[in-house]
Amino acid sequence: MYLPFRRCLRRLEHSFLRIDRAYTSSHISFQHPSLRDMLLTILQNNPKVRHQYIIHASPDGLSSLIRGIPLFGQIPEDEAHMPILGSEDELNMLCKRIEIVVTETIPHSKMEKILSSADVLIPRKGFRKIGPAELDLVKFSKTPPGRVLEATLNAIAEQETYNNNATYSLLSWASILQKFYSLVPYVLPIPRPTYLRLLVDRIENADTYHAISLAGCLSAHEPLIFKQVFSHELDRKWNDFIISRLRECCKQSEDIEDISYMHYDSYEDYEIGLSAYDEWHDEADELLQLADTFYSFSGLQEANEFSDLQELFDTLESPSEPLEVPYEDYEAHHVCKDYWTIERLFEDL
Amino acid sequence: MAVKYRLNTLGWYNFEMLVQTLLKAIIGPGVTSFGGTKDGGRDATFEGEAPFPSKETRWKGKWIFQVKYSGEETGNERDEGKWTPGTFKREIETIRKLRREWPDNYVFIVNVRLTATIRSKLRDLISNAGFKGNFHCIDGHEVCEFLDIYPKIRRAFPQLIGLADIERILNRDLYTRSEAFVSQWKVRLSKFVSVNQYFKALELIRRHHFVVLDGPPEAGKSFIGAAITLAYASEGFEIFSIQSPHEIFQVYNARQKQLYFADDAVGTIQFDPTLGNYWSRELPNILYKLDRKHKLIWTARSYILQEAVAETKLREHIDDFPGVYDVLIEIGDFTLLEKALILYNHVKNSKVSEEARELIKERAQFICTHPNYTPERIRQLVEFVLSQIEEELTSTEKQRWLEEIDRFLKNPSERFQKAYEKLGSSEKTMLLTILDLGTRVEENKLKKEYEKRVSTISEMP
Fold first, then answer.
1. How many Cα atoms are found within 13 Å in the side-chain-facing hemisphere of B248?
2. Would A210 disulfide with which of A11, A171, B279, B383, CB 3.0-4.6 Å?
3. Cα(B238)–Cα(B174) distance, rounded to whole angstroms?
4. CA closest to B37 among chain A residues
5. CA–CA gap between residue A280 and residue A261 (Å, rounded)
6. What CA–CA distance (Å, rounded) separates B187 from A71?
7. Strand pairing of B210-215 and B328-330?
8. Cis preceding-peptide flag for A70 (omega within 30 of 0)
9. Neighbours of B282 (CB within 10 A)
10. What distances in angstroms separate CA A206 from CA A213, A322, B104, one per listed residue?
11. Which DSSP category does A142 fall into?
12. pTM score, two decimals?
């Protein structure tokens, strides 16, 4: 029989767990990260506990398990900082669990996290990833990292994954697919997402920024689909949009130029200027990246406004703070250490 | 009436350090350190002129400052000066024996409140001893007034930051996490020791508006980060406990003083690649927003930070800015005195029995020089081991507890592992669920996951 949630929580509060209670919600964490280390040690030494952990792993738990795969079967010299699997059964359990979790409805950030964790499965020389052409991919596919990578990418490519996560924005899908395509060359046969057409169908009504991001990803990795779908008309429409945004941003930069070079006497005026500069800077940055992506895949000639804005972005600096008030700091001055022995220190305890 | 800041929790060493710092600010940098004499008298000296005891008057010549510390604070006005006159009389006699001549100015500093009657008594005592110069007492109340005048000195002693200071901090929304942050740390703040790395970190954050606290597990990174954060909070900074860089953009306000605290910025016990990528993408945009009014603190375990730098584009930023390594403080290399102070503070500010305190006094040297010493271990030692020691131990029991302390230091996780083994299936399931879900889990989410698991688990280890 298992205890009801609240009773169980009460038993663990103060010893293992800490509960931070706020107006709208409460959060639970370990008293100290070292307790997590201790639990990992228990996980390491107890296969039964480890099995339970794997079969119930959440997306966060899966990320952690995936990151431990390069150490598969090893006993770490120091403390383990992640769970490390040790048997064929456990590997199969993990692959199965990946398939279940990835095809469920999960937050976009968790999907990204699983994919980012899968990145460590790629063999490295020092910090450099070994390219797929340098690897024996058949041999790699039989290793634990190869098998887990294959399981992860196959799950991402499943139609069910899309069906259960169709609410992700196109921008989120573009981000997921970028990571997916960076890993896919290491797997044989190469999996392909079955839902690309469904994504493309959403482009017409999507936010232009998101649509262009997805188009950029597809043009690089799925050129045939890209050719079928992206017409000159669409390119012209996006180009007009980008040029108009670039012009607007360049016009705003005339005011920003004044702000950037102004000498401020009062901190209040400086803050107003800084606020305006920040806003312009963030918008310009995003727009330049978007334009860069678009011109890379469209083949259209870059608008003059693009290089104009790029120049302004590179040259206009944040306004300078007014002259600093002399800073007075009072570091604690250490007392005579010869006098203060441990014994003396504890005298008044 | 009690003094405003809890000076009685500081201990003699810290109080002396505080007075030293205040005197340097009030009198001048020429005040010498408090020197020890054979019989234990503590005084510092100064030669010159200074605006004292007020800005309008200027005393000159040779000065002696004597500090006395009492750990008692009964809250009863009658008790507050009780011990002082007798002690004071002995101090005067010490000065007369050890010094060939009286100083021109004699200042007596004590941490408790002195009544007008006591002040008068002290004045009579010194006058009867033959002193003809200027005499002044600074009591606990006035020390607190000086701390109000010099808020930056308070920053050097974050353990003094009052609840009133802290509760000024935002109570609004994103802010529920920051509110939880304040609740979590304010209780522990009295145990803080201003170690060398704390001052280095303060200086770095003052200069670069960004500091990374790096170090092994249990070294005290989060505590130092929290102390800096709360010190800034007491000077009017809004604080935000953040988990990802996007939250900075959400809350950023150019006009407001803000401090962003990212504890375990790139992962708690292992590198979190998503977080790492977010930070490496956004760090340049965040760094240029930092200034006198906008500060950022990171903490990270060393091996995690190394992995983050290697696996992400953080390495590119190292060559710019000042990069990550220019604002890095490595926590963990404490002096013996700092280790002793950490132990002292934890014990002093806990509710352990007198017997437990005596045991610590006996084993202090051993504990502070133990190869497994970490600040977190000391906290656990006091909270989980010493707290169980009752009053009046037999010699056998005392010996057993000494062995228990030794055993804990050798293998602190053994105690937790034993405690874990004794837990029921429900508790074990809950702990593993939290381990799986991440660092900080929202209660409703944990409830859902826990209930899902217990409904499917048929057998537990």
1. 26
2. A171
3. 12
4. A339
5. 15
6. 41
7. parallel
8. no
9. 15
10. 11, 44, 83
11. H
12. 0.78
Return the structure tokens found at A48: 């039964």
Q: Give the three-class secondary structure for B49.
A: strand
Q: Which of B24, B311, B436 to mutate: most A Cβ within 10 Å?
A: B436
Secondary structure of residue B215 in the 3-state scheme: strand
Question: E strands within B115-269?
Answer: 134-138, 210-215, 238-241, 258-262
Q: Which residue of A has its CA nearest to B202?
A: A331
CA of A278: which chain B residue's CA is closest? B289
User: What pLDDT digit, counting tens, does each position of A262-303 carry?
Assistant: 788 777 788 788 888 888 888 898 899 999 999 999 888 999
**B348 touches B11 (CB < 8 A):** yes
pLDDT digits (tens, 9 = 90+) for B93-152: 766 666 667 889 999 898 888 888 888 888 888 888 888 899 999 998 899 888 888 877
In degrees to the nearest 10, what's the CA dihedral of A60, A66, A71, A73? Answer: 100
Encoding tokens for residue B368? 């502070």
Task: Give the gap in angstroms from C-alpha B13 to the nearest C-alpha of chain A.
Answer: 7
Is some CB atom of chain A closer than 8 A to the CB atom of B286? no
Q: Is the dihedral of CA B117, B119, B120, B126 positive or negative?
A: positive
Contacts of residue A42 in chain B, CB cutoff 8 Å?
A: 417, 420
> Which residues of chain A form beta strands (DSSP E)?
17-21, 26-30, 124-125, 128-129
